[in-house]
Protein 1
Amino acid sequence: MEENQKSSFKVALNYALITAALLIVLDLIFYVMDTPYDSKIKYVAYLIYIGGIIWGQKVYRDAHSEGLISYGKSFSVGFTVGFFAALIATIYAFAFMKFFDPTMITKILETSEQTLIDRGDMTDDQIEQALSMTAKFTTPFMVSIMALIFNTIAVTIISLVTSIFIKKEVN
């Protein structure tokens, strides 16, 4: 049993690395294409998470678990793939914002300001106050932590759902 758990972690970690690499490449493509920070196209990253999680779960089930996997084990493999991919992507994002393109934080704040202005339901003073508060929490570290938390919640939900379809138990 101990060896089985070890191999599931190793398999999951391999697929987490692949998934993270794909997420980083996608982010670099968006950066080169100058995709706006708040663009809906960036949700494509969740397709990569879904693909990586399913791929890791299926490979573990079919190649390392004799074609059988419980719901719990499937969730465990999927969550491990997703969490470590998110962690690696978060470390990359932090380093990118901190060292490669520090102006990204300014772009995030400008996008926030434009969103508040476009809503049209706030005075200039209220907008300034909201932006002041936003700026306190918009640092590379805080943006990265919030992304990790959000992505961990997302991969948990994805793993819970995909495990329903991946599980294959003896009847």
Note: The chain has one domain: 2-166.
Protein 2
Amino acid sequence: MKTYISSRTNETVVALAKLKDKKERDNTSLYLCEGYKLCKEAAGLVQVKYALVRENRSEDKEYISLAENSGGEVIILSDGAFDKITTDKASDGIIFVIKKDDTDSISVENMKNERICALDNVRDPGNVGTILRSAAAFGFDRVVLWGCADLYNPKTVRASMGAFFKIKTTVIDEPVSFINELKNGGRRVIATALSDNSMTLGKDKIYARDCPVIGNEGHGISSEVLAACDATMIIPMSGKTESLNAAIAAAVILWEYGREEL
């Protein structure tokens, strides 16, 4: 059964449009997944509450089949109603409204057989999503985050290109305690930062059980996290530029770690 909504002021449309805001995502435990490719990646892996289809796609068998098989209520929307909800200026006409997973807090003990990395105050949602994508591509099991952009920001979900649904994520409030637990469990925690004794990626020995930490785009690793880590690491560069974008730096580092046997 499909419902049709034409009005931008319909209460369901108004409610779903509010999911652009983190506060509303937190209050409702719902978030948006936009675009055919991304929705197809999510299908079967998540709990879909609504599958929204733009009216001009309502006769497209692939789109309607994806919506009907999502497990959510299918709603056909007029252009105006759809545009009120979407955050994607180049939307191809389908949105899943997904229920967040109800997960318990994950202990370091539960991560002992996982390949993990961490993000320290990475504030740009596009960078966070891109790092999730790289982590999944290079065989990481989990990304641990603190002080970062909201995982459920539509830009984060979109930038992950489906990795969002395939890699474990854990958001924590006390990074120093977390780092100390990792160290007590025999892992090295390596901050990506410049210091007098920094390791050089590709030259110094790294281990799959290390936890590399990627820092903030502008300010790098926070001082308390830096002090808690075992060591620092730099990416060797030509000298023609001082730094890399956080997501690019992460991809280089995670690729190198992905070559190590766990």
Note: The chain has a mean pLDDT of 95.
Protein 3
Amino acid sequence: MSKTYRLFISHSWSYGENYDKIVKMISDQGIEFFDHSVPKGDPIHTNGTDKELHEAIEAKLKGTSCVLILAGVYATYSKWINKEIEMAKKYNKKIIAIEPWGAENTSKIVKDSADRIVKWQGSSIANAIIELG
């Protein structure tokens, strides 16, 4: 019987394409998972307060086995990714940092917080999920 992993895939909404690619890469590796991420279409993103968004993210993140964060340099400047890292640590969730394809500069904050740093490829991401999840 295969395991279903409970994942929180962090993403900045302006980088939605990368989020979609990560979901596809994980699926293509045959990993069964439940995505705990707050959906982009959730009205809390456009109509909610920062406090409401924080509570929504925390509620989703609490029930996961691990958190995947794209370690692009933009992450260093994202207040939400920094908050997600804090929440992951608060609930003892494993963090997998994914280095973007071809990136020369990556986020030191994300990589320093990570339990595992992987490259932008499905097998590396899947192996980290299996090991940590």
Note: The longest strand covers residues 4-9.
Protein 4
Amino acid sequence: MKYAWIERHRHRWPVALLCELLGVSRSGLYAARIRAPAQRTLDDERLVAQIRQAQRKHRGCYGRRRMTDEVSDMHGSPVNHKRVGRLMREHGLQSRKRRRRRVCTTDSRHGHAVAPNVLQRNFTATAPNQKWLADITYVPTDEGWLYLALVLDVYARKIVGWAMSEAMPQQLTLSALEVALGWRNPDAGLVHHSDRGSQYAAGAYQDKLQALGITVSMSRKGDCWDNAPMESCNGTVKVECIHDEHFATREQARQAIVEYIGYYNTERRHSALGNVAPAEFERRWYAAAKNRGMQPLYVGHPRVTHRRPPPGSSQAAEVAVRG
């Protein structure tokens, strides 16, 4: 380690001075230069290459914990998390986190009826389509804001509905809900939780939920913790998909978000799931349910047949993401 440190810094300070400070001989340093690298060093180099590959794949957003599971799978055997953390620090491969200014997307000053908080921060589920969370976030572009409405299935933390618009009309959240309903086709008894904003308390939205026997739940006023997993999902989308990007148009942002949702659902390891991707976590549940002879809650086909979108369109990309 001392010789390696000297080699990294020998262009800044004299080698003789560095050897004296670290208590090693110059002859030992020169001998180390021609000595074959140790197996540990070769393993570290291979591990660093795997970490770099994983960081490129996951947009530079994996920290030590997720990266440990990722490279362990690539390595074919468990890798110590402390070793992964050390190599990430030494080679500047830490995850990037940023925070940006906030825009208020919740308007609770309206005359619509507000539902009680049925969920009560109980964010556990034993199967898909038991609890859904919904919220709105925003994306900056040169053309102005692009607003994004999401619906999240609590069980596998999977994004099951989304819609985007340059404004926040009631149709935005309703469109996201219709995507989720068409894809998942849930049974009656599902709990739908959101904030008490006008988009979710509106008559058309509530009528849709009640017609399908879905229980409505709303957060208390100004309490983001009542919808914590949804807030976390919004933050993840912003940090990993939006904050490091510059979108000239809303359409550019729309395409990037649709692509990211596909990545989020199928590839990104989720800490709440034991660092398993949502799609894989859900697949395991269906496999276990099939082995137990249970009837699946949905088969992945929309309840309404739509005309197939033209190839290359944003609608076609969204269909591909939903699978």
Note: The first helix runs from residue 2 to 9.
